[in-house]
């Protein structure tokens, strides 16, 4: 299992979380055919791919504005649990967590409405920075009152 968390631009705490229990490739970008959709001027249509390679994951930068892993610009590299990916120099931060223990940790500290369980047979979920209300799946439990907060990057 891999878990991606969109981090608040100032507080650096998760504002939305996506879980991917079985996927081997996860695409992040502005295009609606990505698994994680981030509408930001600095994010490319297809900005990043996360790929499972054996038991490990690697990040591949596809965006024109670059991708940064723990503050360093990368093109392709392995990632570890807890790594933070920044899309473009001033774009959104995404934290990568791996494994069931990481999911349990996040689900205890985050409202259920912030967690979107992705399945390959369900539509993709736009983020809160889309300017539109999130369209969460049936696995996602009650939305709380502050789930309409918007962030601009």
Q: What would you note in describing this structure?
A:
There is one protein chain. By secondary structure, the protein is mainly β. The protein has a single domain, classed as Tumour Suppressor Smad4, CATH 2.60.200.20. It is built from one helix and 13 strands. The chain has one helix at 100-109; strands at 2-7, 14-20, 25-29, 36-37, 48-53, 56-61, 67-69, 72-74, 76-79, 84-87, 93-98, 115-117, 125-126. The strands form two sheets. The protein has a seven-stranded mixed β-sheet. Strand 1 and strand 2 (14-20) form a beta hairpin. It is globular.
Please render the helix and strand layout as text.
Layout: E1 2-7, E2 14-20, E3 25-29, E4 36-37, E5 48-53, E6 56-61, E7 67-69, E8 72-74, E9 76-79, E10 84-87, E11 93-98, H1 100-109, E12 115-117, E13 125-126
- CATH class, named Mainly Beta
The secondary structure category is: mainly beta
Q: How is the biggest beta sheet arranged?
A: 7 strands, mixed
The CATH topology comes to Tumour Suppressor Smad4
The total of helices stands at: 1
* Cα separation of the termini: 28 Å
Percent in strands: 35-45%
Strand order of the largest sheet: 8-7-10-11-1-2-12
Low-confidence stretches: 119-151
Instruction: Estimate the global geometry from the Cα principal axes.
Output: globular
- C-alpha-based Rg, rounded: 14 Å
What attributes does this structure have?
Tumour Suppressor Smad4; 153 residues; 7-stranded mixed β-sheet; mainly beta; disordered C terminus; 6-stranded mixed β-sheet
